[in-house]
Predict the 3D structure of the following.
Amino acid sequence: MSTENWKTSITKIGPGTIHVKGYNITDVMEKLTYAESVFLILKGELPSKAEAELMNAILVSSIDHGATPPSVLSTRTVMSAGNSLNAAVAGGVLSIGDTHGGAIEQSAKIMQEWAAKDGDVSKIASDLVDWLKENKIRMPGFGHRIHKIDPRTAKLFEIADKHGYSGRHIELCKAIRTALSEKTGRKLPISIDGGIAAVISDMGFDWRLGKGIFIISRVPGLIAHAFEEKTREKPMRKLGPLPFDYDGPDEREID
Amino acid sequence: MSTENWKTSITKIGPGTIHVKGYNITDVMEKLTYAESVFLILKGELPSKAEAELMNAILVSSIDHGATPPSVLSTRTVMSAGNSLNAAVAGGVLSIGDTHGGAIEQSAKIMQEWAAKDGDVSKIASDLVDWLKENKIRMPGFGHRIHKIDPRTAKLFEIADKHGYSGRHIELCKAIRTALSEKTGRKLPISIDGGIAAVISDMGFDWRLGKGIFIISRVPGLIAHAFEEKTREKPMRKLGPLPFDYDGPDEREID
Amino acid sequence: MSTENWKTSITKIGPGTIHVKGYNITDVMEKLTYAESVFLILKGELPSKAEAELMNAILVSSIDHGATPPSVLSTRTVMSAGNSLNAAVAGGVLSIGDTHGGAIEQSAKIMQEWAAKDGDVSKIASDLVDWLKENKIRMPGFGHRIHKIDPRTAKLFEIADKHGYSGRHIELCKAIRTALSEKTGRKLPISIDGGIAAVISDMGFDWRLGKGIFIISRVPGLIAHAFEEKTREKPMRKLGPLPFDYDGPDEREID
Amino acid sequence: MSTENWKTSITKIGPGTIHVKGYNITDVMEKLTYAESVFLILKGELPSKAEAELMNAILVSSIDHGATPPSVLSTRTVMSAGNSLNAAVAGGVLSIGDTHGGAIEQSAKIMQEWAAKDGDVSKIASDLVDWLKENKIRMPGFGHRIHKIDPRTAKLFEIADKHGYSGRHIELCKAIRTALSEKTGRKLPISIDGGIAAVISDMGFDWRLGKGIFIISRVPGLIAHAFEEKTREKPMRKLGPLPFDYDGPDEREID
């Protein structure tokens, strides 16, 4: 075994002091939003104003998607079987996989690989769609089970545009949509997964962090479901794609 | 089996629309911080300005605590054994338990029960310390393995004071510290767990959500460790309380 | 930190040698059944012939119970979301809790506490049923969602009787059934959970191992379901209490 | 969504009856060993006598390997943090991955692919070793951190030989060892992972079940460690590759 100490670059701990990526935790608590802190701990540097707003919007966008996703089903099942909250969250996080939440990293991987090629994005998008067709690959991050248009993606790109932040990956993402429409005749929406993939790629995140960002975003939703299961339902309930009704607050406006 | 549909009050989903606790997700993405959204989804209502700042500070405060906590050890061990990021996070979340992260809910439970009693907080704190001594219970949320004073708690209470937000639970928390010092002679610091417990109790959160708030806060740290393990270390590394060095950015200031 | 080494009494490893509870693993591989090895590793000693047969029957009895239990639902959901086999098993094991598989330990706890009292078992059973009624507790391990009579319990007790092994806990278990019937008018079957609880109590197992024995028994079933999900179904399937048909082998006899 | 019921071929449940792969569970409880039942549920058919002994030896062989493997570390860490037994087992199972327990399936995959080629096994083994060298791949299932010779593999192959059961995969496995020794000069032992891989391949198991068989085998060991942690150690213990001593029973013989 090596006698050298192993290394970590994340957090430095001393008696009475905690520094995350070099910043004193008490300063971070006061001066940064939580979304900015998430950016800092994953990227190592503070975000610009545009990046801070985008990271905030990303984390908010996927905080919950109702009672049907597999991760919610698993969280509620573990809770319903009589377990602790952390076990229920773990069960939910386990159900996030290649086919649930995985489209972000798959989409970001493809975008990062193709955006690195020379040439303009519409030519790259056109080549990419040909390649997808040849290899019978469905472009991840496009299309949605429920939404014909994903309103979250539109908002995300709107924020990026407002700051003049849209870079090569967001542009490629839009060009892929156009190329898919022209070459296949199907006008698929860019799902929030595809939208997040494009934005974090422009931010310079490694595509392998895509699922991580989705997990951070979704955990509060899983906890809300676990707590609702615990406080509203009987133990060992039969769960699954059964009919349910929403009985929360009516639609309302943020003042 | 009941023929009635089951109910959820969290999120309403329709084609092209998502409302969290009644608010349109695209409005939330633009107008609320992620910390405010976490408050909303767990509490059902929007936070006040003071509550928003406090929730933000709470989530930031526990985002990471270096490489030694059990949850980090488990996350890195799962990653090191050759697993996916979500499995590593699940492993870490499983290691958050009654003795790691659990002090928030245990402390909040006691504070909520005792703050509900009649009388002023110093009398209640004094009775509580007697009760703890009689029953040989260690007050959860006081004392820390590493920190003699927990700087995060001081910052949290400072933010509460700035807004005139400190209520009966924060006051009881401080009174418990005084009573512990007077009756046992030990000047224990209020750990961040105790601090969070007092603040979320003043915010009106059910104590059973204490571990949930800690999990939300810590998940980004776990992901940072998982990713560092994946990208810096060899597979199936021997992990544990081995010596390690911090080699991240030097101490620096937020502009 | 203590400078003394910590201790383990389970397995001794040296270069080229492995001893489980003192026995050379290669001897165990050849001379003991796997059920006997499970008994050995949990209890520290070799089982008698009766105990070996009973432990075997216990492990077989709960190997699977079709596609409806929460643990199967979770395992299949994790698998369906695009995860590895070990993550799927972990998800299933997380869904074993106080209300699924937990009846063994709850039932064993009560039986071990009450069997320790003086007097004959029918008097104890009668007092116990009174105590249950007063405290509005449902006796765990009695009654079953699907089975009016649980054929597995009958077989387990038959094996115990054949060997003259039925001790105070099995007798108490039967007496509880009689007392419940006399005092409440309901002829509840002893479920397999109750049956296992009685037998492992007669074997001298700590009741806190009840859930462990259930987990050991059920894991092969979870793996069979995970593999079937992987090889027969499409990814990200909607799972839950949906109608399904059995299309495996017809009923047949062991030669 | 399809209106057709989905299908499962594992277990048929009716009121008062349970049939696993067509066999009445009460018959299985009485007539089959647990190892035979595991074979049945994973393979769909009853094992021959040789297969029954081999499956038994396989499950026993990996039941525990002391306190150092990642899965034991994770299980004990989750338990030590104050969690339930099933959460601890789930944490341990999550730490079984490509680099811990994964060698069985990796090795079986290679053996199954190469054994399917025409020609005698020594020629195939020779080509395989060339291919490994060219592609800089380490042959999984050969070599061991601790053992120069893995006594468990020798015993497994001895049982196979006794029954005249050794087929093309076991022979290929032995030929690979010879070829590795001749071409690289390193006499690597066939680890138990490699041994199990060869045997289950001769039994006709899909290589993707390799990790599943390892998980089944190891879970009782994880439960023994979780229970020992719970009953012998203080909560939130610092765990890792720290020195520990074995203080269980002395070496002894099975009568």
